[in-house]
Amino acid sequence: MNLVTAVSAAAALSLTAGLTQARDLGPDEALKLRDAGIIQSLEKLEAVALAAHAGGQVEEGELEEAYGRYVYQAEVRDAQGVQWDVELDATNGQILKNQQDD
Prior knowledge:
Oligomer: single chain
Radius of gyration: 18 Å
Number of helices: 3
């Protein structure tokens, strides 16, 4: 019985985890969302990320839908060469996370 319970619990957890994962959005979908006024332009979102790290540059950016929210994730390298992970609410530009990359 314990083995059956453990296997059932593991299966339920893996199914639940799959439902809550983020979904990457491609450029076409991002443009549609921007044109519909749902998200800010990627240029504006990058400007917010860069404002948090003056003199830096965005090395990579990605738009996702996670937990019913559009999130823009940017990898920013600051003027000192330090890498930062910056997450923004893509609808309003609010910084959700701004931490040094490990």
